[in-house]
Amino acid sequence: MSKIKDEISKRRTFAIISHPDAGKTTLTEKFLLFGGAIQTAGAVKNNKITKTAASDFMEIERQRGISVATSVMAFHYKDMLINLLDTPGHRDFAEDTYRTLTAVDSVILVIDCVKGVEAQTERLMEVCRMRKTPVIVFVNKLDLEGQDPFDLLDELEEKLGIQVRPLSWPISGGSTFQGVYNLYDHNVRLFQSDKTKIATDVVAIKDLDDSKLDDLVGEHANQLREDVELIDGVYDEFKPEPYLMADVAPVFFGSAVNNFGIQEMLDIFIQIAPDPKPVETSTRMVNPEEEGFTGFIFKIHANIDPRHRDRIAFLRICSGKFQRNTFYKHTRLDKKMKFTNPATFLAQDKSVVEEAWPGDVVGLYDTGNFKIGDTLTEGENLQFRGIPSFSPEIFKELVNKDPMKSKQLEKGIKQLTDEGVAQLFIREAGNRKIVGTVGELQFEVIQYRLEHEYGAKCEFQAKPYHKACWIVSDDQEKMGEFRKIKANDIVRDKDSNEVYLAPSQFLLNMEMTNFPEITFHTTSEFKTERA
Ligand code: G4P
Q1: Domain contains 474
Q2: Is there a single domain that holds both residue 353 and residue 449?
């Protein structure tokens, strides 16, 4: 195998996503423990943006600083190099999570067995479906009295719009939880409630009628036999292809806090999860095995120390070999750039990297050259696609409170929105700036950062908009008519695309009926979705 093929086949780049509190942080930590990247529990916990009140944004800024180090956690497990990309659990940072999903090849979705599928889970899953990202589901907290596992599977299929296939199965649950039966390798792992040790007792049970099973789990053995018979009857045999096509999601059961059920999942994950795949660009598909290096920026993190205005831009490598101190082309700016201190994040230590391969994420120090979605190549003019903006949920107009500082305000809001903190829409008449976010928190963060990093003072005025719709049509006459009627509600996004800000779903539906020639999209890169 060539060097590059070998490097690619070893890599698994993925993210763990969940509704807050389902157990994402705990599971991340256990993965790092298995990978030997950390020695004790508690190390990742600090990264979590906790349930702080919205007004406590200083705390959030502090936590944001910590999270630079854990944005990417690379670790070795068996022969694999695993790049685990962190996603903020806080709902207000959902957009950050959507962008991180553009840089992974697969996802592990954590569900709380008591609460089942929650709102945030459905939205995250929508993004995975749009991108056809393979998903593995981990049903967590089996030590608690949860819902019936079959009901949970039905709920997953119904609410997430994906077929599921259990690969492990709980033997009872809550206070009588015995362990899990591994449907992939046919063995039983017995539950021990222990937060520090890994459950090591694995008993091979090739035949469920074996009386060994009764000795192990007593009265629960018959229930397991019935359940497995039902599973075999209802669900197709597991095959990796439908999972890789994102048509079927394998499901595992366990308890993250007790280190239970995780190793089964990790072992199967490294076998079945995809290695880095071809990626779509404006001109062609880029194959990871290509000689020439290419990559894109999916996340930008500002330095929270105002004396150092530098930022870290996170680059996902898509093809070829990335090398330190080598000139690459920033295709949007048509500019040659080289990086003297690119950082990797192996075992939580940030260190300078000499070379990196497809699937890897490298941190580049940036003084303001990068926007989310920017592409680096060895010279070819291409632009990676698939990093859409989604319709924000809250809209406010940015009002300058210090006319002497309008230049600073312009620059500040531009840089903050380049980083992806929020979306900026400009209404041409009067150069009005409407800021759109998914949560209130961002407005406080913007206001605080504009003042402390740029010396500009601002205020926000709520705008009663419901949704942003990117509008396109082949009928220029109709577009002209629409523009005229809706002049007050039409704005431009960061790439000068036309966007209609709809005041309500009712009015949006009405416009869609009145102007069937116009298509209204709720993301900036549209292929399938409609408003
Ligand atoms: P998140 O990142 O998805 O928001 O969730 P996180 O891992 O922080 O877990 C949320 C809470 O659920 C934590 O409790 C955690 O200990 C608990 N938890 C995680 N896995 C399990 C499990 O398998 N069983 C049970 N019973 N609980 C689990 P907390 O009280 O918020 O924090 P802590 O003080 O216990 O750490």
Answers
A1: yes
A2: no
From 343, 377, 411, the end of a domain falls on: 377
Query: Cα(42)–Cα(31) distance, rounded to whole angstroms?
Result: 13
CA dihedral 400, 405, 406, 408 (to 10 degrees): -110
Answer whether 525's CB lies under 8 Å from 387's CB.
Answer: yes
What pLDDT does 306 receive? 57
- For ligand 1, atom 24, name the residue with the nearest CA: 141
Give the chain's domain count: 3
Q: Is residue 15 part of a domain?
A: yes
How many angstroms does the Cα of residue 138 sit away from the middle of ligand 1?
A: 14
Tokens of 394: 């809250």
Question: 388 in a domain, yes or no?
Answer: no
Percent of the chain past pLDDT 70, that is, above it, reads 88
What domain range is 59 assigned to? Answer: 3-272
The pLDDT tens digits of the residues spanning 142-162 come to 999 999 999 999 999 999 999
Domain boundary among 204, 237, 272: 272
Name the residue at shortest CA distance from atom 25 of ligand 1: 141
Name the DSSP letter for residue 273. S
Ligand 1 lining (C-beta closer than 6 Å):
18, 20-26, 48, 89, 140-141, 143-144, 255-258
Which CATH number belongs to the domain containing residue 87 in this structure? 3.40.50.300
Query: 172 alpha carbon to ligand 1 midpoint, in Å?
Result: 21
Residue 415 binned pLDDT confidence (cut-offs 50, 70, 90):
confident
The set of residues, in sequence order, having a beta carbon less than 8 Å from that of 62 and lying 6+ positions away, is: 304
Mutate to test the pocket of ligand 1, among 21, 32, 114 (most ligand atoms within 8 A of CB): 21
